Amino acid sequence: MLARFNHHFVGIIWHLRALYLMLLALIMAGAVAISATEKVSFGKAVYFAFITGLTVGYGDIVPSTAIGQIIAVLLALVGILFTGVVVAVAVQSVRYAWEETQSQGKQNQD
User: Fold this and answer.
1) Exposure string for 33-46, b = 16+ CB within 10 A, e = fewer
2) What domains can be seen in the chain, in order of their start residue?
3) Are 23 and 82 in contact (CB under 8 A)?
């Protein structure tokens, strides 16, 4: 069942690759914006953008300007979308794998 899940998960992710690339591009654009508005290095801004986008939020880098805070909220919203799509793909993959396992079991009984 795990192999079937992996097969479906990777397949669905592959079909949604444009969406994932767009979400990653938005996170990187947020990093560029944070780097410019908060006057931090691009590396720290990328770290901040991904930590915020993945909704971890360690709090070691905090935006101090109003624009930076707005960007942080937008990054969090992008991260919620990203996480939601991954969860939806995982649920759908479990469903497909389960259905295949059940139909295979019925074929073996016949």
Assistant:
1) bbbebbebeeeebb
2) 16-96 (1.10.287.70)
3) yes
* CA-angle at 25, arms to 49 and 8, nearest 5°: 105
Q: Is 40 left (phi over 0), alpha (psi -120 to 50) or beta?
A: beta
Q: How far is CA 100 from CA 69, 82, 95, 109, in A?
A: 47, 27, 9, 14
pTM over 0.90: no
Q: What is the pLDDT of residue 110?
A: 61
Q: Check residue 17 and give its pLDDT.
A: 96
Mean pLDDT along residues 17-45: 97
The candidate with the shortest Cα–Cα distance to 64, out of 36, 37, 46, is: 37
Burial class (CB in 10 A: 0-12, 13-18, 19+), 79: buried
